[in-house]
Design brief:
heterotrimer; A mainly alpha; B alpha+beta; C alpha+beta; B: Alpha-Beta Plaits; two-stranded antiparallel ribbon; 5 strands; C: alpha+beta; Cytochrome-c3 Hydrogenase, chain B; five-stranded mixed β-sheet; 20 helices; 42% helix; globular
């Protein structure tokens, strides 16, 4: 049990994941931009993220005058803890599942959904006009995007008739992959909105509101917020792979490596979209989400129920 | 419209296969060679005639003249690299032949200094003149002065002789 | 031209004469006639006021004010001068803001620098200079700069105290319970550059913007008077050093006109090639800046990749990549060697290999279109009223280009036409930037082929023909010269005294100054996300905004 809390899939695994994913983002984005990313420290720059994160830990955490002390200093810690918890619910390999439960999917979705509210409180607590604007933007965006996220994440539950993540992975096959393909694409678009990635990176708009609610943070606080952000990535990516792409099942053998490679595939597609699409405004995002995305998810549920009758033979 | 966006996304990935100049490692190879590159100055004290043109044309006042203990051609330029903007006007205006006394083209491009205040005060191009050169120039001047005096004496002697022969 | 000259018959003038092919030069005897003359000129079609500049003549105890009126449709322009007294109590003249909307900031600048009071101006506050220069009028000939520099620390304290006082007044003025606030889109914002916009907004909706400029003020117009005519090129090229060559060409032409010197054909063609390379280099950065405001950095990186090859050409020609100092009065500063033209060819090939990708991914990007085709629309009337020029004017459909209207260098032998778009929105300005880059590449190919042909025939000698001698002391005179800079039209007005070794007064008209006047007009009623988009598409460089 201690091994699972601290090493895998625990705190060390999350730190390692942060370091590796950040390095991967930088190198891949750089080659899309026709340049090289970090290349001096270590072979192909792999030590660079480690150095950056440990530098953050040694810097001074400045607390500006006039902030609300509970909101400002307590929230990063709470946000990190809340973001790490979903990793206990996901089946990483045929033998590793820390908290097996009948309602795994529901717990995953709810925990991912609470996170943005804590981030709004961080923006509200800093004594800065720009952070406040960033906090309001994140609330507006999350309300629209989470509806689509819930509806598309619950479609495998309707198809397989269970909320248990381990049995969803057991029952997945090539047929269910093709049936669930439209809901996977909708899940992907909602994922971009949930994680504030382009084209929906409105709360984190560096050119408009100077980094949103992250503005006043430095040092250890900033490190904790970054770890929370990357744990959210991991939870959402792993959730997508487990629900739609078949989890740890591979072509020749079932192992954790297949899950990891599928998560990297989602990251690559996200990066290529990031390199070719500019940001859209708040009004356009609201119009897109409520006029097109949510009705499409409702239609998707109809398709799932229809295919369940046609291909799987039963309604239950 | 989604199809349009998807087409753009695919086309962007063409960049993964392009060789760009940013991939050169400039710690080991030079990015671009040019013979006219305006780098660090080199001052040749032997050809400099001390005309002070480079000091007068410098737009920022980076050149100071160093005085030497001679009678003629007694100043050479020294450059403060912290003030210089590397425009190259001093090299353009220098009149010496066959090559100029203050040269920037093709000079050193990696001029670095330490970060402390006292390092900034030492960020100059100084002219080190060996004592042997100073001695040889002083000897030359002395020889010229002696030659001139001898000639003057010879002329006076001739004039005296002419006056004597007239009388 | 003659019906333009007949306007001045009922007024008392000292002289009315032709100047170059499309200008008339008029000096009024009494400055009280200014408003009537301005109204008549406006009714005759000269609807744009390009710039206003004052010259301080200390010995004659008079201050001469120059007005430059332009007609962008019929290409007939008027240079108007009048005298006012130099003493501060009597240094007044009527303001033409009621007739010409574009004179708003130009009169403020003349007031801050020289102390001329414009009677009837709606909002006469100082601009560009910092708070410790208020009411001191630094460009007058009897201002003591060294005396002012002695108390630097006290000046800096004074500036920061006035900022804090302003913030307190803002807090008192606005209602504490409403959601209105004055946001400082300040000099340390990631996407604003060194300019401060005071945004009065209600939540995320904008109610008004007041730009506060002057963070890059180097007093270049005063610096030039302390150097001789050759050393002044390092001050003129720093107007904005992305495209440093065309501003040097403008200054060199003014000096050559006063000295009465004609340059060689080879030097004219070299100035064309260098000018177009500078324009391409600046437009690449402009495209990148527009997309950076929307969060997509790929365009800037791809453009820098191509720009490196053009900078390689500039480095092999002149020895520096960006601040080249390569154009002097009398020609160009260095001779040409054949390997340099090979480097130029490599740059042109690299651009031809990448331009289709850039056009199809970024110029025709659907997300950018949905965001930028309805914002920042400038109509043709706005272009005439505020004297906008360059990319902004041509993207709204106005056919104006100094290279075709008043050709300089070797542009009369080049085959080119106006490139315009209709609409005038931010998206049209981006498309205009890209098409101008393609036009410039075409011009370079024509010029390069011509130079190579003439070198083969033996008419150009690239190692000797590049410069003619200009005398060190110029006679008394004045001249204006216009060039097409990357961001618009630059007008240089040079005044020299008898046996002058350095300029007496050099006025550089900055196109970005007129363009920044539009920020308030374009952004009233939009949201905060639109500020970087519109500001980036106006193609403003803070270096030439403040000079």
């Amino acid at each position: 049990m201690l091994f699972e809390i601290f090493i895998f899939p625990g705190i060390l695994y999350i730190l390692l994941w942060t370091v590796v994913l950040y390095w991967f983002f930088r190198k891949f984005m750089a080659s899309l931009h026709k340049r090289v990313g970090p290349s001096f420290n270590g072979p192909a720059g792999s030590y660079q993220t480690l150095f950056d994160l440990s530098k953050l830990l040694t810097k001074e955490s400045i607390t500006p005058k006039g902030v609300n002390p509970y909101l400002f200093s307590l929230m990063p810690l709470l946000a990190t803890i809340l973001a790490i918890i979903p990793t206990a619910l996901i089946p990483w390999s045929p033998s590793v599942l820390v908290v097996p439960s009948e309602y795994g999917l529901l717990g995953l979705v709810v925990l991912i959904g609470i996170e943005p509210f804590l981030l709004f409180l961080t923006g509200f607590g800093s004594n800065n006009k720009y952070s406040f604007l960033g906090g309001i933007r994140i609330l507006t965006q999350m309300i629209s995007m989470e509806t689509a996220f819930f509806l598309s994440a619950l479609s495998p539950a309707i198809l397989f008739g269970t909320l248990n993540l381990a049995s969803i992975v057991e029952q997945s096959s090539w047929l269910s992959f093709f049936v669930l393909l439209p809901s996977f694409m909708l899940y992907f678009i909602a994922l971009l909105g949930l994680l504030e990635q382009p084209p929906f990176n409105i709360p984190d708009a560096e050119q408009e509101i100077v980094y949103g609610f992250y503005t006043e943070y430095s040092g250890t606080n900033y490190f904790l917020l970054k770890v929370a952000e990357f744990s959210e990535f991991m939870a959402v990516f792993a959730g997508g792979v487990v629900l739609f792409l078949g989890g740890y099942k591979g072509l020749f053998f079932d192992n954790f490596i297949c899950l990891f490679i599928k998560m990297l595939f989602i990251a690559i597609v996200m990066m290529v979209i990031r390199a070719s699409t500019p940001r859209i405004t708040m009004k356009q995002m609201l119009k897109f989400s409520w006029k097109y995305l949510v009705p499409l998810t409702l239609l998707n549920i109809v398709w799932i129920m229809l295919s369940k009758i046609l291909f799987f033979g039963t309604i239950v | 419209m989604i199809l349009n966006i998807a087409k753009k996304v695919f086309r962007v990935s063409k960049a993964l296969f392009v060789k760009s100049p940013a991939q050169k490692d400039v710690r080991h190879t030079k990015m671009h060679e040019s013979s006219r590159y305006r780098g660090q100055h080199t001052v040749d004290y032997e050809t400099c005639i001390g005309c002070d043109s480079c000091n007068k044309i410098c737009p920022t006042g980076a050149i100071t003249m160093k005085h030497l203990p001679f009678k003629k051609k007694n100043i050479v330029p020294e450059v403060n690299l912290g003030v210089c903007i590397f425009c190259g006007l001093c090299e353009d205006v220098c009149p010496t032949k066959p090559h100029k006394s203050i040269v920037l083209s093709g000079g050193r491009y990696d001029m670095l200094t330490g970060g402390w205040h006292k390092d900034q005060e030492d960020f100059w191009v100084h002219v080190d003149i060996p004592q042997s050169y100073i001695d040889s120039r002083l000897e030359e001047e002395e020889a010229q002065r002696v030659k001139k005096e001898l000639e003057k004496k010879k002329k006076e002697l001739e004039k005296n002789q002419q006056e004597v022969s007239k009388v | 031209m003659d019906n333009l000259k007949s306007i001045f018959k009922p007024f008392d003038t000292k002289y009315v004469e032709d100047y170059k092919s499309s200008w008339i030069k008029v000096k009024l005897s009494y400055s009280t006639n200014l408003l009537d003359v301005a109204k008549l000129l406006y009714d005759n079609g000269l609807r744009s006021i390009s710039t206003i500049s004052a010259t301080d003549f200390l010995e004659d105890n008079v201050m001469e004010i120059n007005y430059f009126f332009e007609d962008l449709v019929n290409k007939k322009n008027c240079w108007l001068k009048c005298d006012v007294s130099r003493e501060l109590e009597h240094c007044k003249i009527a303001s033409i803001c009621g007739i010409y909307k574009g004179a708003l900031w130009n009169e403020r600048e003349t007031y801050s620098m020289f102390g001329v009071e414009f009677v009837g101006h709606p909002d006469l506050r100082p601009i560009i200079i910092s708070q410790d220069f208020y009411d001191k009028f630094p460009f007058r000939k009897d201002f003591d700069w060294e005396e002012h520099e002695k108390n630097t620390v006290a000046n800096i304290n004074f500036i920061s105290e006035s900022f804090e006082k302003e913030e307190e007044e803002n807090e008192k003025k606005l209602d504490v319970n409403s959601s209105e606030m004055i946001l400082n889109w300040g000099p340390t914002h990631p996407s604003s550059g060194p300019i401060r916009l005071k945004v009065h907004c209600d939540g995320e909706d904008i109610l008004g913007i007041d730009p506060d400029i002057g963070f890059v003020w180097r007093a270049l117009e005063h610096l030039v008077t302390k150097k001789d005519f050759v050393g002044a090129i390092v001050a003129v090229e720093r107007l904005c050093f992305m495209d440093n060559i065309n501003s040097m060409v403008g200054y060199a032409q003014a000096v050559e006109e006063i000295a009465g010197v004609e340059i060689t054909e080879f030097a004219k063609w070299m100035r064309v090639i260098l000018g177009e390379v500078g324009r391409i280099s600046s437009h690449f950065m402009g495209m990148g800046g527009f997309y950076n405001a929307m969060g997509l950095h790929t365009v800037a990186m791809w453009n820098m990749d191509i720009r490196e090859f053009f900078l390689d050409f500039l480095e092999s020609y002149s020895g520096a990549r960006i601040a080249t100092a390569s154009v002097e009065a009398g020609g160009v500063r260095y001779g040409l060697a054949p390997e340099m033209l090979d480097e130029l060819q490599k740059a042109l090939d690299k651009f031809d290999a990448t331009k289709d990708d850039i056009r199809s991914i970024f110029v025709k990007n659907p997300t950018m279109r949905s965001r930028a085709s309805t914002i920042g629309i400038l109509s043709k009337d706005d272009v005439y009223d505020y004297a906008l020029c360059g990319v902004l004017a041509r993207a709204s459909g106005v056919k104006t280009d100094v290279r075709i209207d008043e050709p300089y260098g070797a542009y009369e032998h080049i085959n080119m036409d106006y490139v315009t778009q209709d609409g005038g929105s931010s998206k049209d300005r981006l498309v205009q930037l890209f098409e101008e880059i393609e036009q410039s590449v075409d011009i370079i190919k024509q010029a390069k082929a011509h130079i190579e042909k003439k070198i083969e025939e033996g008419e150009f000698n690239p190692t000797k023909d590049y410069m003619v001698k200009v005398p060190k002391k110029l006679p008394k005179g004045e001249a204006i010269s216009r060039v097409e800079w990357a961001r618009g039209e630059v007008l240089m007005h040079l005044v020299t005294e008898e046996k002058a070794k350095s300029p007496y007064r050099l006025k550089m008209k900055a196109p970005s100054f007129n363009h920044t006047m539009m920020v308030d007009y374009l952004l009233k009623g939009q949201t905060l996300s639109d500020i970087p988009l519109v500001f980036g598409s106006l193609y403003v460089c803070q270096g030439d905004l403040d000079r």
